[in-house]
Each structure stands twice: as structure tokens, then as C-alpha cells.
Hints:
In chain A, a hairpin with a 2-residue loop joins strand 4 and strand 5. Chain A has two domains: 230 residues, Rossmann fold; 35 residues, no CATH class. The model of chain A has no long low-confidence stretch (mean pLDDT 90). Chain A is an alpha/beta fold and 268 residues long. Chain A has eleven helices and ten strands. By secondary structure, chain B is mostly helical. Chain B has two domains: 142 residues, no CATH class; 73 residues, no CATH class. Chain B is built from nine helices and no strands. Chain B is flat. The model of chain B has no long low-confidence stretch (mean pLDDT 84). Chains A and B meet through strand 6 and helix 3 of A and helix 6 and helix 7 of B.
Amino acid sequence: MDALNLTEVSYAYPDGIRAIEKIDLRVRTGERVALVGPNGAGKSTLLKIMAALLFPTDGSVEIMDEELTKKNAERLRRHIGFLFQDPDDQIFMPTVWDDVAFGPINMQLGADEVEVRVRDAMRMAGIEGYEQRVPHHLSFGEKKRVAIAGVLAMKAPILLLDEPTANLDPQGRSDLIRILRSLPGTILLATHDLSVAFELTDRAIVLKKRKLYDGDLSTLLEDQSILNKASLDLPPLCKLMVEWRNRTGKKFAIPRTVEEALDLLDES
Amino acid sequence: MRHHEIDQYARLSPLNRFDPRVKIVSTIILIISMAFLTDSLAMLFCLAFLMVLVGVSNVPVKHIVKSYLLAFPFIAFASLAVFLSSGGDTALGMFLRITDSVLALLLLVSTTPFFELLKALRWFRVPMIISSLLLFTYRFIFLLLDELERMRMARIARGFNGGKSILRKDALRTIAYTAGMVLVRSNARAGNIYDALLSKGYTGEIRTLNGLRASPRDAAFAVSFFAVSILAISIQIGVIGWTL
């Protein structure tokens, strides 16, 4: 089953600026995909189209094998959990509990089910004990966790994450990555940080208004021309290992983690 | 940045345990009855009742006084206008009447969480658009204040010092640009917020899980307000004085 299937999707803003052009994309259920590209590449626009928040000016979108139309958008949105880049755009209820419960209540679930979902989501996001806290008094990292809990409480089978680690400190970033790694279901995350993609996904789609690359993340690391076109930079570890490979003439796939790099060094 | 929190005392107040609908109705009854009062003694009686409630509410008197002082210039101006046209007694009556009404409303909003008030308003069939607007204004006013503060810092960091007098042409221009930028940013944020609402299943109604439920204790609360209103009116028409 396809979680998402986009065919020749284009989108132009009302002022005529084309954000994305002729994107073909297929994401299978349970797959984890990184949507990478520079700022202004159309990543957020594409995510909003997949979340049924924007409608393409051309092309078609299928969510869970059902074609998106304006009539069924409200229903199809239930399949999607959308994490916004800025949690202040996403959190609007007066207390953390109310905000996390907002989605399940809109799904018209019973009180007991809402209670269970909110507790589970808050536990997974690591914000137990924050129930009565006022969201706008929280730090950015805490707000991000509240936003994630709000998405998790809806138990949507597809999660779309827009720059999930943006503006987080190193501890907040690693905490968030740990949470995201533990999540089930289909995950599609937009980022311009390849190191985040490394830690969460195997497949990468490079976007710069058009789709430049769709395939294995490890293969992308070897394709300098695509990386240059999309203004993407290899993480420091990868750069180091590429430089070492060039100097020694050894042949190996670029490691994605410190452990993989250490194994290579040990072997040599 | 930390801002003053509207609910900072409401959740801890013993008066929070009462049904917000009952509190709204009781407060309105008291304010309407005070509108008919001209006798200063009757108004002082209401003031004493409200002071007792402030005492048991656990809301710091300093907080009530600070909030009251925001309204004080308007109260003083209205009383002064009446003093000039109708004399001291009427002005004192006007001063006490508005003070009582403001105090009653302050007590209501200081001891009731904002969201509970909105739920009660919805129960009274206040249109959804108004209660939603109030909710989002309350939530996002702080974000806009933050944006204003960030822009103020950015101006200062780049040498702007025209804020000392709005009569300076460059100061006016910069302030106008700032206001425009806040509008643009607010508009962009409003779009994002709406998308976030849609993605969480919003269809025009802010749904809540906990319904409102009145108990005999709430009836006692309403009766106390009603009794004070009757007593104040009795003092006004001389029934109490005649009986006593």
C-alpha cells in the first residue's frame, strides 16, 4: 500500500511564483524518507500539499491510495500528523494538556480514549508532569515536545515533519531524534541538515523546486554534483572520511555514524 | 520573554471551584443591581462584600489594586465630570458604583481560568467566532509582543534612538515600518496557525472534553450574590433602615 503518491505535482503561489514543479513521488507505508534541499526549495510547500493543507495547481495527490480532492481533504487529513517548523504556530490551547488533547477531541473520541492518548503521547514526548503548564511559558525545546505530543496523540499513520530539529540546542536535538526514531509508521521529514536525515532515514529526495534525486541516502553522499546543485553540505564526519579516502586511496562507502567510521578505521 | 499571565491566580483560587456560568450570572446580577443604586451606604455595603471575596479568593490584593489602577483614570474622569455637573454626592456615588463593578469583574476574571470563561460564554450561546477570537487573541498576543520586542532590540542594536520623541520624522517612519512589519508577520503566522488547526481536525468549533456541571454549592454562591443585591437595594430604598 502507498502512504503517499504524487504525480506531476506543481504548485504556484497566488503571485505566480512557482514553488515546486512536476514532482513525482511515491512513499510506501512504513517507509522513512528525508526531503532535503536548500531554503526556498519548496520542501514546506510540498509537505503542506501532502498534508492536504494546500492543493496542487497541477498534478494529483493520493493519500493512503485515495485521491485528494477538496471534498475529502478534511477526512484524509486524519491520516496525517503534521509537525510545523515553529511550535508557536502549532500550540494554541491554554494548557499543555488541552493542546495535546485538541486533536483527539476533534476526532470525537470518548473521554477515556482521549485521556489515554494524551498520557501516552506526553510520555513518548518526555513531557509528563507538564499537563497544567502554560505553553507560551515553555522553552523552545519544550514547546517542540508539546507540538510532537499533539501530533502523536492523533495516532496518524503518516507523520510529516517540517525541519524538526531547527533551532534546537544539541541536547534538545538529540532528545528529539531519539523520540522520532522510536515512532512507528510512515515518516517524511523535510530538512536541509543531512546529518538529521542520516539518523532517521535511509531514503532521500533532493528538492530544488524540481526533484533532483530520489534514492538511497548513502548513494547521494557520493554524488557531489547533486549535492552542489542543491547547495547541500556533507556533515563534518562524512567530509573527514571522504578526505581520508581520497588521501589513502582506500575504497569504502562513506560512513554515516561515528561507530561506522570507527569500524572502518579499526579495519584499516 | 515572560509576560503577565492572566490565569496566574485563577487555578489556585478557592473561587475557581465554582461553576463559571454561575459566576458570570451572579456577577452580572450584582452589577445590574449596583447600577440602580444611588445611596453611598448601599454601595459601600457591596464594596465590603467584594472585599471579603477578594480576601477569601487567595488573589493577592496587590494584583487586584494594580489591575484596578488601569481602570482608575477612566473612573476618576467619569466621577470628575459628574462632580462638575451634579455635585459631590452624585460624584461619590458614581465613583463607588464603577469601582464596585470593576472590582466584581476583576474578581470574576482573576478567579476563573480564561478557557473556563470561554466555555461558559459558549454555553450562553455567545457566537463561536467571538469566543474563538478571544481565545486566539489571548494566546497570540504574547507572540506579537515578543515580535515587537525583537524588532525593538534589532532597531536599538543598529543604532536607532529615535524612539525618545515621536515628533522626529525618522522615528515616525521607523515606527510605521515596524507596525507594517508586525501586520505582515501576524498575517503569515495567522496562515500557519490556521493550517495547524486544520491538520488537527478543526472544523470551526473549539471542542472540549470537560463539560460544565453546576452543583448545590454553586447555587449557594449565586444566592449569596443575589442576597447582597437585594440587601443593597433594601438599604437604598430604606427598607433595612426602616426595619432596623
